[in-house]
Amino acid sequence: MNTDKVALEGMEFYAYHGFFEEERKIGNRYSVDIEVTTNFDKAAQQDDLSGTVDYVQLYEIVKNSMATPAKLLEKLGQEIIDGVFERFASVSEVKVSVAKHNPPFGGICAKSKVTLERTRSYP
To answer: Is 63 a known active-site residue?
Structure first.
């Protein structure tokens, strides 16, 4: 089993997510980190992009998910994971963290964050 990883760290978006309606109207700053497990053999041996996960496409999956409002960070994380598994058959695992900057709950908190880790299930 390969444990080759592709990661994008510190992606930032201004988006309209949140449990409260006001959050979905005003928007907020979010950060996303993602790491996927795949097999680099072809890319490493042949210097061929088709043998790995194209991080431009990986970024687009995250960007598209962040553009669709959701109430929960957990929902966003799962949508990102589903998009990765759908797009990249070679990915066996995905780990994604989604953080909301300055969450609105009346106290000092830099970020609220969820992290989801999923392994592809094969039928």
So the answer is: no
